[in-house]
Recover the amino acids of this structure.
């Protein structure tokens, strides 16, 4: 299975299915905080926009249904491998393209790049992850003219990759392999400077718990849309994910990276 097929298998289950249990922003990634799901997702989106600092043009790699694009405040381009996500965003007047970052050749530079929840899909099991991540960071450096890359990714923490759930790898995110913090740092070395790093794993444990609760409440509607097998698979995946973050097996890194020599801070 190619990465494109794997992404579409998961994200093209159907927009209406995801609307049942995501918040109104359709943010399918870790929220920031644990008050209400919508408020926490809005806080997450605001964080990444502020960290990227785009003033003229923004790129969102893995744009989902376009929540970042809709809030960018500047011309913004979004990349996704999901045709349903791109169609939804384009219907709202957003510039979302069905395109892999490896195939993206912008005619103008960006002064801010955001990638939330896509990094986990860049490398397949057995691939040279550091080389792939380094290629991505190199492209971001070349595309940037000011601003930063604001990256959010799940990563292995207190767990060896060989201990990863076969259910998650085969039934939920096939052909995907999580990074480790060491691999991210090694890939960035000499390419982009890490200027901020935090771990929001407990936020993600809470977020997955909220999604699971909302999906359970809408179970009857969800079954009508996608069938009982899919609903049960997603309920199991959300429960296992919440447990993995709570136990520290998984991490959720929010990382700001900038080209070396750029001016930042006070």
């Amino acid at each position: 299975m190619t990465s494109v097929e794997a992404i579409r298998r998961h994200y093209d289950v159907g927009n209406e299915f995801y609307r049942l249990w995501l918040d109104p922003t359709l943010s399918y990634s870790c929220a920031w905080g644990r008050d209400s799901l919508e408020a926490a997702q809005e806080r997450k989106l605001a964080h990444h926009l502020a960290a990227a600092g785009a003033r003229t043009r923004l790129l969102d790699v893995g744009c989902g249904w376009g929540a970042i694009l809709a809030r960018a405040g500047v011309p913004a381009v979004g990349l996704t491998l999901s045709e349903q996500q791109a169609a939804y965003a384009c219907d709202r007047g957003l510039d979302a393209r069905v395109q892999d970052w490896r195939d993206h050749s912008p005619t103008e530079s960006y002064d801010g790049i955001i990638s939330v929840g896509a990094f986990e899909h860049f490398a397949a099991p057995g691939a040279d992850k550091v080389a792939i991540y380094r290629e991505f960071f190199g492209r971001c450096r070349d595309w940037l003219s000011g601003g930063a890359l604001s990256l959010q990714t799940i990563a292995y923490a207190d767990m060896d990759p060989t201990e990863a759930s076969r259910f998650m790898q085969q039934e939920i995110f096939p052909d995907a392999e999580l990074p480790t913090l060491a691999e991210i740092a090694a890939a960035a070395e000499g390419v982009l400077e890490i200027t901020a790093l935090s771990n929001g794993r407990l936020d993600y444990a809470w977020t997955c718990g909220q999604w699971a609760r909302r999906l359970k409440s809408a179970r009857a509607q969800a079954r009508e849309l996608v069938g009982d097998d899919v609903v049960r698979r997603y309920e199991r995946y959300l429960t296992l994910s919440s447990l993995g973050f709570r136990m520290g097996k998984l991490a959720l890194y929010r990382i700001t990276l900038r080209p070396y020599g750029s001016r930042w801070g006070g």
